[in-house]
Amino acid sequence: MIDTKQKILDTAERLFGHQGFDATSLRQIISGAGVNLAAIHYHFGSKEELLDELVTRKATPVNDERLAMLDRALAMAGEGPLAIEPVLEAFLMPMAVLGPSTGRVMGRLLAEGLMPKLAKRHFGDVIQRFRSALERSLPHLTPEELGWRMHFMMGSLALTMSGQPIFVPGGGEGVDLAERLRCLVTFLSGGFRAPGSR
Amino acid sequence: MIDTKQKILDTAERLFGHQGFDATSLRQIISGAGVNLAAIHYHFGSKEELLDELVTRKATPVNDERLAMLDRALAMAGEGPLAIEPVLEAFLMPMAVLGPSTGRVMGRLLAEGLMPKLAKRHFGDVIQRFRSALERSLPHLTPEELGWRMHFMMGSLALTMSGQPIFVPGGGEGVDLAERLRCLVTFLSGGFRAPGSR
DNA sequence: GTCTATACTGAGATAGAC
DNA sequence: GTCTATCTCAGTATAGAC
């Protein structure tokens, strides 16, 4: 069947999102997808490459939307000063279109430290564009301090996408991703705007 | 030998810190520690309980120092307003005493989502004390929004303790933990101080 | 080209001898 | 307390059916 590959991807996405990458076995995936174990290695080569393809498929439209929103923010600012909020919105809000499963996958990956490998392949130029925009918005920061703040942002984002918000009364289950991300934009705007610490 | 247990703990801490929990096998640990495989299950019961004991041993002094610093901050503030910085410093700076290995372990745990289980056991009352202090510092926030911001903070902290800072020129390897954490305090102060988003 | 059956190595866990 | 042997299940590799 032509959609064996698709069934594997769908099932893997769901299980990775719920249980994490390491905790999900290929045998769980094939059982859920109703395919043979070796089909995974035929179509993808390995468990890690399956993950890689999953990320590529989901990340591409998100990154396109990120850059489109960033371009609009830059056009609006013109030659004048560039506020942080629209830059952060451009980076973060497009993730809201990811379903809960994909969101959890992305967050898990960031969190499990698997991202460094994938990041350069899939996000390299996007990150570069946003770093430039942030440099323009925040000229008071050294490159090192800006790098750290971007690092902090990725950490917050990771837990926001993946984790159970154990500090939020009610577990935050009723709060959809877009609202979480708006809350995060507010928080990060304040953080980025803080004076340099050295 | 009485210190079989200690040798296992030391080696596990080092390997978990460098490779993460999932990526470290018990057989790597016993080979590094020079003990038998079954010794781990005799002394700890399982791989996860080994981790649990590791966390307990390292977290207890950190949490004690956190509460001591928080008490000092509350005493300094008296009846007046309570600034955010000393509260965040009390929560974050005690982690600087953790060596790089333990720091990575802690960060990994936060990031791998293993913390929710461990958190309630080891950090429950500490978190409660700090939530109260933050509520006093930031009366303009709803309980939900404060919860989200604490969640964001844990995400940033996790990546700060564990991850390679890929956005920092030079990889940030020369920057010690205390300086990273000071940088994080500045950032988070700005974030927590941001106006409520709803 | 696609998929199945099966086997290989290494993981965590356990029972029982010493 | 410690060690050997063994169990199940993980990811992986390959030979061959259609």
Observed structural traits:
9 helices; DNA-binding; homodimer; about 200 residues; elongated
Characterization of the model:
Two copies of one chain form a homodimer. Chain A contains nine helices and no strands. The first copy, chain A, has 198 residues and is mainly α. In chain A, helix 4 packs antiparallel against helix 5 and helix 4 runs parallel beside helix 7. The longest helix of chain A is centred in the N-terminal third of the chain and has 31 residues. The model of chain A has no long low-confidence stretch (mean pLDDT 91). Chains A and B meet through helix 6, helix 7, helix 8 and helix 9 of A and helix 6, helix 7, helix 8 and helix 9 of B. The first copy, chain A, binds a DNA duplex (18 and 18 nucleotides) through helix 3.
Q: Largest protein interface?
A: A-B, 58 and 58 residues
The overall pLDDT of chain A, averaged over residues, is 91
Shape of chain A: elongated
How many alpha or pi helices of chain A? Answer: 9
Rg of Cα set of chain A: 18 Å
Helix-strand sequence of chain A: HHHHHHHHH
Helix-strand category of chain A:
mainly alpha
Question: What fraction of the residues of chain A are assigned to beta strands by DSSP?
Answer: under 5%
What distance separates the N and C termini of chain A?
A: 60 Å
Oligomer: homodimer
Low-pLDDT stretches of chain A: none
Count of β-strands of chain A: 0
Q: Strand count, sense and closure of the main sheet of chain A?
A: none
**Fraction of residues in helix of chain A:** over 70%
